[in-house]
Amino acid sequence: MNELSAPSRLPALLALLAALLLAACGQGGDGARPPLEGARIGGPFTLTDQTGAKVSDTDFAGRYRLIYFGFTYCPDVCPTDMQAIGAAMRRLEQSDPDRAARVQPIFISVDPERDDPATVRQFVSAFHPRFVGLTGSPEEIAGVARAYGVYYARQGDAASRDYLVDHSRMAVLMGPEGQPIVLLPHEQGPDAIVAELQRWVR
Ligand code: NI
């Protein structure tokens, strides 16, 4: 009597079905696994948004987060990347508004000394109306940058307010539970970003 009877096999089948369904939820449209699945990127944070309000990672629960780290005084790279992200969001809103609505674009400053909420507000509003711009104390920014594996360092005269910030050029898509999904090819322009959002945002 080694064979399982039909009734006792049923729970195992249901468990298998549930596992398959769960696996399907984490997949891209083509069944691939997210490249950053299981990567130690992200985590809890509390920062200040462009209106001066405290914002935590949990405030974005249920939404995909497109996160870009930079600084508003950046002469070229950050504005170019932010432009690409803003354009990608508008294109997705045109072609697939429901999917676009599930994505929250977020800018996080790596220049907390100069990027106060008002400065951040002016910056992010130039790229997309739904951009959330986050800044914080130097300690808070150091913490979130560490959690996301982002490098940044001030260049030039430390006593002057006229300096550059060398930083990782990173845009990452995080899932609705804050899990890392994929690094976005922002340097390839808006269409490349849209393609990744269509692939991974469900
Ligand atoms: Ni920059």
Outline of the structure:
The chain has 202 residues and is of the alpha/beta class. It is 37% helix and 19% strand. It is globular and about 50 Å long.
Would you give an account of this structure?
With 202 residues, this protein is α/β, with parallel strands linked by helices. Helices cover 37% and strands 19% of the residues. The chain has six helices and nine strands, in the order αβββααβαβαββββα. The chain has helices spanning 6-25, 77-95, 97-101, 117-125, 138-147, 190-200; strands at 46-48, 54-56, 64-70, 103-109, 132-134, 152-155, 164-167, 171-174, 180-183. The strands form three sheets. The protein has a five-stranded mixed β-sheet. A hairpin with an 8-residue loop joins strand 6 (152-155) and strand 7. The longest helix is centred in the first third of the chain and has 20 residues, at 6-25. Mean pLDDT is 89; it is low at 1-7 and 16-26.
SSE layout and pairings?
Blueprint: H1 6-25, E1 46-48, E2 54-56, E3 64-70, H2 77-95, H3 97-101, E4 103-109, H4 117-125, E5 132-134, H5 138-147, E6 152-155, E7 164-167, E8 171-174, E9 180-183, H6 190-200
Parallel strand pairs: 3-4, 4-5
Antiparallel strand pairs: 1-2, 3-8, 6-7, 8-9
Helix pairs in contact: 2-6
Instruction: Report the sheet with the most strands, covering strand number, pairing sense and barrel closure.
Output: 5 strands, mixed
How far is the N terminus from the C terminus?
46 Å
H/I helix tally: 6
Q: Mean pLDDT, as a whole number?
A: 89
Structural class: alpha/beta
Q: What is the helix/strand order? A: HEEEHHEHEHEEEEH
Overall outline: globular
